[in-house]
Design a protein that fits this description.
Number of strands: 10
Number of helices: 3
InterPro entries: DUF306_Meta_HslJ, HslJ-like_sf
Domain DUF306: 36-112
Order of helices and strands: HHEEEEEEEHEEE
Protein name: META domain-containing protein
CATH topology: Lipocalin
Strand order of the largest sheet: 5-6-8-9-10-1-2-3-4-7
Pfam families: META (PF03724)
Distance between the termini: 57 Å
Largest sheet: 10 strands, antiparallel
Number of domains: 1
């Protein structure tokens, strides 16, 4: 009986996804546009990653900056690319995403093998789930 339990435990650990290296994570991030729609909002925040740069867009201003991954945490001070006035609810979304990455945020990527993987951030004892949409070859070089 002991042998069966040990074998079962070994099989379960063999099936678990191994953590990605930083390079593997960056490659995976760059293949998708990651969308999050906050509760009480119908405007998604979209994130794209390319060449160590994070771009964020909530339907008004373009924002972005360099990002770093340190021990499964993401740090990305986001600055405005342009700064036009927007509807108040959009400005609230933009403020949210700019403040979101000021401190390193723990994250994980789940369902790597599915069509729509999830980029899950843990912040303030809450999960923020960004759903990935595969980028085509044409828009993979900038949206």
């Amino acid at each position: 009986m002991k042998t069966k339990i040990i074998m079962l435990a070994l099989l379960c650990t063999a099936c678990a996804e191994k953590p990605l290296t930083n390079q593997e994570t960056q490659n995976l991030l760059s293949q998708y546009t990651w969308g999050y729609t906050a509760p009480n909002s119908d405007t998604p925040i979209k994130l794209t990653f390319k060449d160590n740069q994070l771009s964020a867009y909530a339907s008004c201003n373009s924002m972005g900056g360099a990002y770093k991954i340190i021990e499964q945490k993401m740090l990305a001070p986001i600055i405005f690319g342009d700064a036009q006035a927007c509807a108040p609810h959009i400005m609230q979304q933009e403020h949210f995403i700019r403040m979101f990455f000021l401190q390193p945020v723990p994250f994980k990527i789940s369902s790597r093998s599915s069509q729509n993987p999830k980029l899950i951030f843990q912040k303030d004892q809450q999960e923020y789930i960004f759903v990935g949409t595969k980028r085509s070859h044409e828009n993979a070089h900038g949206e």
